[in-house]
Please model this.
Amino acid sequence: MDSDFEDGPPNSSMIHATPHHDGGRVPPGGIVCNPRWKSTDLASSMQGKVRMVYEDDIGIVDFHPAHDKAVVYVTEGDLINGSSYRRKLAKLRKAKKMKGIILVDKTQMTDQYFMDVQKFVVLELGFVLLPVTNQTEAGNLLVQMVNEENKPYANPFIMRGRRNAPVDQSVLTTVQTIPKLGSVKAKALLLRFRSIQGIQAASLSELSAVVGKRNAHHIRTFFDEKRKVR
Model:
């Protein structure tokens, strides 16, 4: 694998192999980037903040902020031009040891597509979805991921310690797609578990305490069936 280093700097962490990547290293305080992002606003926004290492063979992945995290950026153009990005994300799902984080452009041009994308990425694939408005915001978010990689209590993709934070309407609508779950119970779940990933990880007893046993069983069955088709 071509890179800025041959065997990797001391303490670098190995990238888990994916169907489109043979494995490699992420340098401490650095991020492995797909060369297609060179000379972009995104790259400029990260310049001087983290060490950027461009690799030619990371396949469908756009960025590796850590050895076990793969970031794919679904741009405004990807959303408008069709569904080819879905095939890319479905391939990423095969990388069992890799946590998928999907950045998605949420703009006036893409609002009409966003709900379907969110359902596909979060409910069907089980990835983390982070909406961004432009490449600069995406770059700043990637820098934050790198800087907080060794601070699990400061995870940038989980709302924590923000009990009074308002529920995102698009996330609420996505949760409501779970069969037999209305808006009131969907909101209660988000207020309790903070994210779709939190709901998915909750135990039957934890869910029952919020929405009752019958609804808890519906939720567990829904997510268990999603896991079976992966």
